[in-house]
């Protein structure tokens, strides 16, 4: 797939270098043992969406993305853009939240700014992408209100892949924010 990303489902990264596809597959297999990854897979199975190990694939990406969810092809992890196991596991969790949303919302339209904004808000919040430690590692040291600002920033970046209209992205994020930020399904609370 060479880094081509379907509608707004990519996780961006600034890392250069990384791993081979074969090494990426080994890291994916290790990531599949993570409790949060296991939980997401179990929840999808409960909804009737089967998630086999073949659902996950390491690939080489030409764009600076960590990975993406393809509704027709599963989760792709960009091995060449990732260096650490934690990064691979984090991509799996984030993209599994997209896959879960695809499973539970039968009319999810990835071309809709509102649907994509909602999916990205949920994935960034529930995956822990905006945990304060991750933000510090990105060089962002503000504590007050960091999570919501981080989520909005990351949603804008991710949506920028498919929607060049910044005003439209912002409007979509604001329109769905309260509903989607507070939708923590399948978790009892944000983790």
UniProtKB/TrEMBL annotation:
Coiled coil: none annotated. It comes from the Eukaryota. GO terms for biological process: mitochondrial protein processing; mitochondrial proton-transporting ATP synthase complex assembly. Its EC number is 3.4.24.-. GO terms for cellular component: mitochondrion. It is an enzyme of class 3 (hydrolase). The keyword Nucleus does not apply. Keywords: Hydrolase, Metal-binding, Metalloprotease, Protease. GO terms for molecular function: metal ion binding; metalloendopeptidase activity. InterPro entries: Peptidase_M76_ATP23 (IPR019165). Pfam families: Peptidase_M76 (PF09768). Belongs to the peptidase M76 family. This is Mitochondrial inner membrane protease ATP23.
